[in-house]
Each structure stands twice: as structure tokens, then as C-alpha cells.
Amino acid sequence: DYIASGVKNGELWTDQGTVSVENGTTSLDPVLENTGVAFPGSVSKTADVSETIALANSDGASVMLPPYATGFEGDVTVELSPDPTMQFSNGIAQVGFAYNVEIRDSDGFPVAKLNLPATVTLPIDQEFSNGVSADSLTPGSFNDDLESYLYDGMVADTNSKQMVIQTTHMSRFAVTTTTDALSGAVSSPQAPKKLKAKKITTTGAQLT
Description:
The protein has about 210 residues and is mainly beta. The chain has one helix at about 125-130, and strands at about 1-10, 10-15, 30-40, 45-50, 55, 60-65, 75-85, 90, 90-105, 115-125, 140-145, 150, 155-160, 160-170, 170-180, 195-200, 205. The relative contact order is 0.22.
């Protein structure tokens, strides 16, 4: 199974399906369709480590960093940015957009581990949840080595509209469920349009 995704004109385009592989390699020329779902923007904020840092985008995704979570002096910058990748692997399905949460100290170095938990809030997009109940949704933190979402090290409170995650490490976060629970996660477009995927990478596709 595969899923290709990209962003054009501020909207998400996707294609998913099954491809047979023979002799170890095969070619893939996905045709992406417009889901009609708007792709949210990135937000960032810089403040002293002694302050509470809170930021949110227009879709309801947000990050709250408590005072002294990263240290005891200097400034800290928090950035919340959506990721166009739609990840389905190892029986785990992503529901809606994933968000990269990055924290950098005053010297520009990334902060991977926090002294105190940050609060990451992810909206549950009805365009993607496909009617899956809140009880079947779990927080996912993406592991680059395994190329899959993991559940370890997080606590979350979930309702039909949002998932609130408590975590002390930074990552790409997403609402996830099992692939069995989520069938046809990406909505069919209201008015299908098609694009060729010129170049597919791990973070999306270059569209033409």
C-alpha cells in the first residue's frame, strides 16, 4: 500500500492505493486529487524561559510551554508547523495533519528534552476521522528510524474535537488510530482535480 501527498494553492492533494513490486523494484506514477481541505499555516514565538509560551494556528493546533521547561536563563523559540505527509504503516493510520513541534534555545540549538511537560493540542478533523470514536484515537509521535508513529512517553485527553497531549520530548505529533478502525481516511474531493507527482519525498510531493 502507498499514499502520496502534497500541497498546492493552500490545499492538500493526495493519492493512495496498492502497487505490486516485482524483482525488488517498480515504478510509481501517482495521480494526486484535491481533497478540498485547506492546509494550515505555521506559527512561532520567542520569549524568555521564565515566561509561559503559548501559540496556536487558525485550525486549533497549539503548543503551551510552561516557565523554565527548557532551562533557567535566556530566550527560547517555539515553532508549530504542519506536515503534508500522510503516514500509514505498521497497522497505524494518521488521522488529519501531523504537526512538527520544534524548540530552539537562544543559540539556535534544538531542545529535544524538556524539564517540564509541554501541552500539544491537535484538532480532530472530521474530514479525516471518518467517524472513528474518540476512544479509538491515540497520540502518535513519529520515529524516523522506524518510519512509524509510536505511543510511548505521552499522556492524552481526547474528545470528538481535539486531542490534548502532555509530553517532555519534541517530535512530529499526530492523532492516530489503527488502519482497521480507519477505512478510507482521506476524504474524496467534492470536485475532483488531478495532478502529476513529479517528485515524491518522505515529506510530500512536488506537484505539476
